[in-house]
Design goal:
- The complex is a heterodimer.
- By secondary structure, chain A is mostly helical.
- Chain A has helices spanning about 5-55, 55-60, 75-105, 110-125, 125-140, 145-170, 175-180, 185-200, 200-215, 220, 240-250, 255-290.
- The radius of gyration of chain A is 25 Å and the shape is globular.
- Chain A starts with a helix and ends with a helix.
- Chain B has a domain at about 5-95 and about 170-250: P-loop containing nucleotide triphosphate hydrolases (Rossmann fold, 3-Layer(aba) Sandwich), CATH 3.40.50.
- Helices cover about 35% and strands about 25% of the residues of chain B.
- Chain B has helices at about 45-50, 80-85, 100-110, 120-130, 135-140, 150-165, 180-195, 210-215, 230-235, 240-250, and strands spanning about 5-15, 15-30, 30-35, 60-70, 70, 85-90, 170-175, 200-205, 215-220, 225-230.
- In chain B, helix 3 packs parallel to helix 6, helix 4 (about 120-130) packs across helix 6 and helix 6 (about 150-165) runs parallel beside helix 7.
- The longest helix of chain B has 14 residues, at about 120-130.
- The chains are: A mainly alpha, B alpha/beta.
Chain lengths: ~290, ~250
């Protein structure tokens, strides 16, 4: 056989394939860098601007009256935690429950409808969800309130938590479910103590991601929780939140307020980053346990 | 020998598809019955009908009678949960609960069923079940480790221990050795012979040598029909039906 020729051909095609591979690799690396540049620019700008305005008073003091320098966002920090916390109390049980239901009843017409609705809800602009909360809570109760803000955020969380819970539960091998049923464990107990328990770290991940998502929402809070320059933790009064406060300060003409807006944005980003790290921690811990 | 479990005219369906055709046979106390036959012949479906696990799959239904100690488990008003506590099951793939330790896995049938037991009783159940499953010596020093940390063969014996902990009367095994190596398989087979004195055992197997080695009775199934059922020795040496002979001599299947 003409070994030399076949060798030569092999060599050319190898060079050509290597060239193609390297080019593709260069393109994808380039695309990755282009994607990351804005992220680091935003984070870097936020850090330089935010840290300069951050001080102890920012965490402990109330917003200063117009015209006065200084002050902080103590009420907004507490307010964000309260609004998001109550949103979790409302949204997580509904979302997890619905997700368990969807996973347990895969193919009925009703569950297809629920699944489709959840997918549509995830795509609804958050300001529309705010209008929904305005209509069902703010108007009947006669005013802006913490509760209205929490309901709006919960409405955003529910479809997210529902779908992630369903996906996580479906990852649990059906054999485990059968093994539990074969021990004479009732269906409801099997679902909760074996299936949901096995999927728990995945469900927790979904919940924390949903929390991170709604913590950064401004639009649905504008006409539900509204904002408040004073201290309030009441469920039925307007409450301040970081996002709304940042929004208000950022569009104001005062340099001091604009600086505080940067600090607020930094604190909010730090809270969300901490939640994401929490996700890592939860899933990392779960990865050690065998499936 | 007392007949523990009597199957009469059992039919099983997946939606419209009929998987078992009028199967009738009886399983005797303190004996091991093996069910053999080619893939898809309905072996697994048959055992899953015996503790009402068949109906767990969406679209699966069964009709006919399965009589446990004189009571039909398919009667109206019979709670499948109660049936499954009396008729335990071990599956093809080892399925220890991944979130539980070895001891919690064994006690799962008690804790998940809300049975209140003292610490001492619980420990006693765990040790007895693990000893019965011939696993105690291997795991007694690491009962708190996750069930998934064991080898495949140990996991399968853990599943046997878990099934035994609820003290069933009948033990169903659906190809319990098909995922195991020959040594683990031998351990499980020894175990079956030890358990025989206390339980009624039904084992589905793809492995004809296994059926010949450890069973007293053998049922041969083909395309949803029970072709032949009799003493294992007779089935393997002198089958009455042509299909049985063809199958055990390897001419088809």
């Amino acid at each position: 056989m003409a070994a030399g020729i076949s060798n030569l051909q092999g060599e050319t095609s190898y060079r050509y394939r290597k060239f193609k591979s390297d080019s593709m690799m260069a393109i994808t690396v380039g695309a990755t860098i282009v994607t990351l540049i804005p992220l680091f620019l935003v984070l870097g700008y936020l850090l330089t601007k935010g840290f300069a305005s951050l001080n102890w008073a920012f965490f402990t003091a109330m917003p200063a009256p117009v015209g006065e320098q200084g002050g902080g966002m103590a009420n907004a920090i507490v307010g964000t935690l309260e609004v998001v916390g109550i949103a979790c109390l409302i949204g997580v049980p509904i979302g997890v429950g619905a997700g368990l239901y969807l996973a347990a009843n895969r193919a009925s017409q009703f569950t297809n409808l629920v699944r489709f609705s959840a997918d549509v809800l995830m795509g609804v602009p958050s300001i529309v969800v705010g209008i929904f909360a305005y209509a069902v809570i703010v108007r009947p109760f006669g005013g802006f309130s913490t509760l209205a803000g929490s309901v709006a955020l919960a409405a955003i969380m529910v479809p997210l938590v529902t779908r992630t819970t369903e996906e996580m539960v479906l990852l649990v091998p059906p054999e485990l479910r059968e093994a539990s049923l074969a021990l004479g464990v009732p269906n409801w107990r099997t679902t909760l103590s074996v299936v949901a328990r096995t999927a728990l770290s995945g469900i927790a991940t979904g919940v924390i991601l949903a929390v991170a998502r709604v913590s950064g929402e401004t639009a649905p809070l504008l006409f539900t929780a509204f904002g408040n320059r004073f201290w309030s933790t009441s469920l039925f009064h307007p409450i301040n939140t970081l996002t709304v406060q940042v929004y208000t300060y950022a569009i104001s003409p005062f340099a001091d307020w604009q600086r505080q807006a940067w600090a607020g944005a930094l604190v909010l980003t730090a809270i969300i980053l901490a939640l994401e790290l929490g996700v890592r921690w939860v899933t990392g811990g779960a990865a050690k346990a065998p499936r | 020998m007392a007949e523990k479990l009597i199957v009469k005219n059992l039919n099983a369906y997946f939606h419209k598809n009929r998987a078992l055709h009028d199967v009738s046979l009886a399983f005797e106390e303190n004996r091991i019955a093996a069910i053999i036959g080619p893939s898809g012949c309905g072996k697994s479906t048959l055992v899953r009908c015996l503790n009402r696990m068949h109906e767990v799959v969406p679209g699966a239904t069964a009709s006919g009678e399965v009589i446990l100690d004189g009571n039909n488990i398919y009667d109206d008003g019979v709670d499948p949960v109660q049936v499954r506590r009396r008729i335990g099951m071990v599956f093809q793939k080892p399925t220890p609960f991944p979130t539980m330790s070895i001891e919690d896995n064994v006690a799962a049938g008690l804790t998940l069923n809300g049975v209140q037991v003292s610490r001492a009783e619980r420990d006693e159940v765990i040790e007895r079940s693990l000893r019965q499953a011939a696993l105690w010596e291997e795991v007694k020093d690491r009962l708190r480790r996750p069930g998934g940390s064991l080898s495949g063969g140990q996991q399968q014996r853990l599943c046997v221990a878990r099934a035994l902990a609820v003290q069933p009367e009948v033990l169903l095994m659906d190809e319990p050795c098909s995922a195991l190596d020959p040594i683990s398989t031998a351990r499980i087979e020894e175990l079956l012979l030890e358990l025989k004195s206390a339980y009624t055992i039904v084992i589905v197997t793809h492995n004809m040598q296994q059926a010949a080695r450890c069973s007293d009775m053998t049922a041969f199934m083909y395309t949803g029909d029970l072709v032949e059922y009799g003493e294992t020795k007779q089935i393997f040496t002198n089958p009455t039906r042509r299909e049985t002979e063809d199958y055990i001599t390897g001419r088809f299947g």
